[in-house]
Design brief:
The chain has 64 residues and is an all-alpha fold. The protein contains 3 helices and no strands.
Amino acid sequence: MAELINLRRARKAKTKAEKEKAAEANRIKHGTPKALHDLSKARSQLSARRLENSRLVDDMDKDK
């Protein structure tokens, strides 16, 4: 005997799968998650701050 299929559930499952596929495409299209974006921004600020702190000559010493 053949397996019975609830058409309403099958239709809902198909719609849900299509929406998930579109959501995945949007995630890829619109870039990285906010947490990773914030992490990279914090790392770049830290490296810029370290570079600024390691300078040998300050701007005030140039005037003397």
